[in-house]
Amino acid sequence: MANSNTQLKTHRVLSLFKRLASGEIIQKSVEAERFHVTEKSIQRDLDDIREYLAEEQIEGKCCEVIWSPTHKGYTLVNISKTWLEKHDVLAIAKVLLESRAFCMSEMDSLLDKLLLQVSPEERQHIQKIISNEKFHYAPVKHGKELIHNLWILSEAVREQRQVRLNYKKENDDQYIQRIVEPQGIIFSEYYFYLIACIHGAKYEFPAIYRIDRIQDMVILSEHFSISYCNRFEEGEFRKRVQFMHSGPLLRIKFKYWGKSLDAVMDRLPTARVVESDGKVTLLEAEVFGKGIKMWLLSQAECLEVLGPAEFREEMKWSVGKMLSQYTR
Q: What is the CATH number of domain 249-327?
């Protein structure tokens, strides 16, 4: 009998804690009726939860069960900066929706889990704010689930294990098979990319694979090794690549006289101002590959590329080719 009572109490306490953690308001009278016990028993259960949380606070996890006069019940509140708060959840939800990176089912799941971090009242408020964006959410066209593969590939990166993958290039009906040594995962312009070296190949820079175009993959038992000084650094690579077009490292120099120099500096994190007269600004930047040309051309007549000389000639050719489309 004693053992049975202990099990019932354990179940009751866990139920209360689970619902407190999900943002529910606990009323002693309601819970006493639910579990067929007295309100004093529920109070003791809440005291047990408080004692547990007090011990957890020593480890830096600061939560507390308090009485809410507004709701006439008990609620769990975060009294530290270790949990997401309502404004954090709103900001992350906005970024997720703007990314368009996930299919509808994954986006719904991510938002639902994210909203569980706040109270039901705050959850309802955030849902109203994002409801229009969520209703009109337009995921990218591939429609594939990605989250599981992102985790699998991140494990392969961490463990330095080779991956055999079947990959389909854009506008190509045929799949190619590669054994690669994954270096990192990057998100850019709606898509996730795997940065990897092709096993056995001697290329100056790694290959870039859009993860949604990987048809299937197998994590192999074979490992590869990279010295610490030669490790791939996603952050440094991301600062120097545009539209995920890989290639040799270029140091470009250009003049800019558009409306927003800040937008240029944000787009090119490696850019630095060499000189400026208040109207025209001379900048230098380090970039990988030719994706930078796509961005430079998008600035229309607001800039001029000065170097390298070969790259300047390439820009002149592209501008001339564009002009010819309008003068035929």
A: 3.30.70
